[in-house]
Amino acid sequence: MMRKATYNGSLAGGRSYLAIPGPSVVPDRVLNAMHAASPNIYAGALVEMSETLLPDLKRIARTRHNAAIYIANGHGAWEAAFANILAPGDGVLALITGRFGHGWADMAAQLGADVTRMDFGRASPIDPARVEQALRADTERRIKVVVATHVDTSTSALSDLPAIRAAMDAAGHPALLVADCIASFGCDRFEMDAWGVDIAVTASQKGLMMPPGLAFVFFSDKAAEARRGLARVSPYWDWTLRAAPDQFYQYFFGTAPTQHLYGLRAALDMILDEGTEAVWARHDRLARAIWAAGEVWADGGALRLNIADPAHRSRAVTALSLPTPKASDLRAWLEAEAGVTLGIGLGMAESDDPAWHGYFRIGHMGHVNAHMVLGALGSIEAGMIALDIPHGPGGLSAAARVIAG
Predict the structure, then answer these.
(1) What is the pLDDT of residues 261-312, one digit of tens each?
(2) What is the CATH number of domain 276-404?
(3) What is the rounded CA–CA span in Å between residue 192 and residue 221?
(4) Cβ contacts of 302-305, under 8 Å, gap ≥ 24
(5) C-alpha triplet 57, 58, 63: angle, nearest 5°
(6) Quick one: CATH architecture of 28-273?
(7) pTM score of the predicted model
(8) What are the respective helix, strand and coil percentages of the chain, to the nearest 5?
């Protein structure tokens, strides 16, 4: 009688899947566009192509106002925004829903702002009623800027920007509303002008499906007026000429990021070919599939979705937890045995705290489709089986039903 062979090696060979919340998967179309010889940066095709980038970025941001490109990451986008609107001593109300809200507040303080932190914890969105109360109390109008993180990448909390603007208007407060859309841009619905956002910042490595290296700042005419009221702005961060240059180099305050611009053009084409509404709908359906699996696994098991209310969950990233150290065990198993890399539990606990090993994140932003999500979820379910992690049965089937419609 023949015995069936048993394979005990890794199944991680082939193309790996980086299912972290940025840098996200870069499509072949973008990679191929970037794989080009260095161009002339003074005239010709690159200059002509670059003229098309800001208008299309503004289409995706749903704004008729201004936009600027920086050679930077998301932190550079934060500093660019602050450099153009803050003077030392200006009041900033920082609305915090996780690690990145704290980071932005820290940067404002380091730049000399007088920062008031309103922390909503690591499992809840911003409460507009508390924002309105704080602004009504600011009778001397010391607060010049309200900073809100649309999606905090660490917690996956999605906050209601239109409701925050409504709270500001109800308080009759003139502060600028500044939104961190680094995780949400091109994934969660965002409409800058309709929602009354004065400044939005994002970066290339998430919903825009690019490698890290480009940052973007969108700003209203009200924000531009605040810039004109400052005594000085660092030349590199000044958005004035970047948004309306007299010469090509002024878009970037120097040499253009040539290959990144080729990739950006391809990424924007992909988004606009699909249609922004369709991109948002795709992210919504794939996110709901992940939530469906997570909710089934959590029923009678140890797994927990960080944000309980689906209305407050991002369509770009989902934060989850397991009993320590099972989250780290699961991440290690998936990378070694299935070729899937999940995100660490950034900001949920300090790295030297044993609790740090109880959190993980699934990135589902940008270049992601049904088989990528189902493959990741199937691998997670296999990992929980392999590691004897208690979980409710049928998570993958629940996700498949969402995908099937």
Answers:
(1) 999 999 999 999 999 999 999 999 999 999 999 999 999 888 999 999 999 9
(2) 3.90.1150.10
(3) 13
(4) 302/326, 302/389, 302/390, 302/391, 303/384, 303/389, 303/391
(5) 160
(6) 3-Layer(aba) Sandwich (3.40)
(7) 0.95
(8) 40, 15, 40
